[in-house]
Amino acid sequence: MSRLAVLDNLQNRTPLIAPSLLKCDFGDLGGEIGRLERAGAELLHWDVMDGHFVPNLSYGAPVIESLRRRTRLPFDAHLMISEPARYLDDFLRAGCELITIHVEAVPDPASLLRRIRQGGAAAGIALNPNTPAAAIEGVLDECDLVLVMSVEPGFGGQKFLPSALDKLRRLRGLMGETALLAIDGGIDPQTIGPAAEAGANIFVAGSAIFDADDYGPAIERLRRSSLAMTEDRSQLTTDN
Ligand code: DX5
Ligand code: ZN
Fold first, then answer.
1. What angle is formed at CA 177 by the lines to CA 5 and CA 215, rounded to 5 degrees?
2. Alpha carbons 207 and 197: distance in angstroms, whole number
């Protein structure tokens, strides 16, 4: 599928729940993907860590590539690595439909975002909790997705930082109604509503899904909580 077709497809199906494969059973990644697909996951979020940009290690392009043929769900590689330029081609070859780099990691994000698009993938830019929205305003035209971190990157299971909400509001205002705006970190049935209300339309969730015995109801609960908020908002708009 072309980049634009992938984007069209994702935009038409928002709000999307994107399980983060950081807290899954690494001994059975293929099985986990099957379970997530049957449970209604819509986008798989791969947290790539290099022990340098963040104080943790996870997996790299070869692991993602070996799982590509297990599912048709789109893959988003969230690169929490210091030198994304060095590895971009590997993630493109691995078959990631979206590749998200951190603005803090590179001096010239625009050129990397262009490289991702030229490679046929959709380009995402991520911001750490302490990075202001202004840091990416200049590259919004070069990217297809913005990912706001609502925890310090590196580990799953942390508490949602409410300061992310103002950043989401500001970015939604700049990006227009339908653009892909993701929130990542501490998303659960309580925090997803305020994040949706603030403008997020992709919700990355690790613990809220993987700590549950059954992924289906956990994903459904998240989806319902995000929709409840979005519907309340459209109801308010109609009432006015
Ligand atoms: C953190 C990662 C997140 C995170 C999500 O560095 O980017 O994707 O693991 O996990 P929870 O939902 O447990 O915060
Ligand atoms: Zn992530």
1. 65
2. 21
Determine whether 55 is exposed, middle or buried from the number of CB atoms within 10 Å of its CB (0-12, 13-18, 19+).
exposed
pLDDT at 29 over 90: yes
Closest CA to ligand 1's atom 8: 20
Percent of the chain with pLDDT over 70: 95
Task: Assess contact for 129 and 150: CB atoms under 8 A.
Answer: yes
- Give the start-end residues of each E strand in the chain: 16-19, 44-49, 75-80, 98-102, 122-127, 145-149, 180-184, 202-205
Residue 119 pLDDT more than 90?
Answer: yes
Mind giving me the DSSP string for 9-62?
A: HHHHT-SEEEEBTTSS-GGGHHHHHHHHHHTT--SEEEEEEBSSSSS-B---HH
pLDDT tens digits, 149-198: 999 999 999 999 999 999 999 999 999 999 999 999 999 999 999 999 99
Report CA(240)–ligand 1 centroid distance (Å). Answer: 37
Collect residues with CB below 5 Å from ion ligand 2.
Answer: 47, 78, 184
d(CA 200, CA 193): 10
- From the CA of 238, how far away is ligand 1's center (Å)? 35
231 CB burial (10 A radius; 0-12, 13-18, 19+): exposed
Q: How many CB atoms lie within 10 A of CB 192?
A: 28
pLDDT given for residue 240 in this prediction:
43
Q: Does the pTM exceed 0.90?
A: yes
